[in-house]
Amino acid sequence: MTKLYSELAQVYHEMYRSIFDYEREFHFYDGLLRKYARRSILEIGCGSGNLAPYFLKAGYEYTGLDLYDEMLQIARQNHPEAEAAFVRGDMRELHLPRAFDAVIITGRSFCYMTTNKDVMSALQSIYRTLREKGILIFDSFKADELLPNLKKESGQEVESGDTKYRRVNRTSLNLETGWTWNWEAEYHIEKKGQEKKVITDRSVLRAFTEDELKLFLQLNGYNILEIIKENTLTFVAQAM
Ligand SMILES: C[S@@+](CC[C@H](N)C(=O)[O-])C[C@H]1O[C@@H](n2cnc3c(N)ncnc32)[C@H](O)[C@@H]1O
């Protein structure tokens, strides 16, 4: 089980604010949600809430959901506004008191669905959370581009306030439950005046081919509205 969203939640929050362009990501989803005229949204894998303020400012009825309390704690601290709702849940078994016009799974969070059973459970559970003809938008790493080019080692460095974060990533093929790979990451955390900390994290992620995702969606009663192929694969699908 990864530590990135529990023990390392604050590190994630600091690092990804530099690594990710959340404003760009918001505009991407906003464009799609406007196109299909959806206003009430559930963001699955909302993490530490980096996209939430954009959705709230744009007037969406927004709920963020994540598996890890540590991520949600940061989200709630940063967005105490009454209209920012953050709830804990697992996309494979959602039990929410209401339904949404749209569910978005952001930041490749769907790639934690490493087994076929996970994928089927998530798609079924999300289906039940959507209003009639509601839409699901989610993205995935592209198996055919990512797996042949897995870098054995790579790194990132981020400075935030008085802390320096350096991450060394090591990846290798796993292939146990689909197009899965192992990701080992070493986090070097240097805070002024404190001893340097090194924390190692291990996780397994899964990429998908376009055909696999088409079939999973079809098997679970979704109609595919569009597939956007950029660095990642984004599916827009409607519950039928
Ligand atoms: C790469 S992060 C993306 C977070 C956020 N969207 C962002 O871009 O910063 C993946 C997120 O998915 C969440 N996650 C993983 N498995 C999940 C599950 N089964 N149900 C709900 N959230 C999950 C993690 O806790 C984490 O916050």
Overview in brief:
With 240 residues, the protein is an alpha/beta fold.
Please give the largest β-sheet: 7 strands, mixed
Number of domains: 2
Ligand roster: S-adenosylmethionine
Annotated CATH homologous superfamily of the largest domain: Vaccinia Virus protein VP39
CATH C-level class of the largest domain: Alpha Beta
Looking at this protein, list some descriptive labels:
240 residues; alpha/beta; Rossmann fold; S-adenosyl-L-methionine-dependent methyltransferases; 2 domains; seven-stranded mixed sheet; four-stranded antiparallel sheet; 7 helices; 11 strands; globular; binds S-adenosylmethionine
What does this molecule look like?
The protein is an alpha/beta fold and 240 residues long. It folds into two domains: 9-141 and 209-239, Rossmann fold (3-Layer(aba) Sandwich), CATH 3.40.50; 144-207, CAC2371-like domains (S-adenosyl-L-methionine-dependent methyltransferases, Single Sheet), CATH 2.20.130. The protein is 29% helix and 38% strand. The protein contains seven helices and eleven strands. It has a seven-stranded mixed sheet, with helices on both faces. Strands 6-7-8-9 form a four-stranded antiparallel sheet. Residues 5, 16, 20, 44-47, 50, 66-68, 71, 90-92, 106-109, 112 line the site of S-adenosylmethionine.
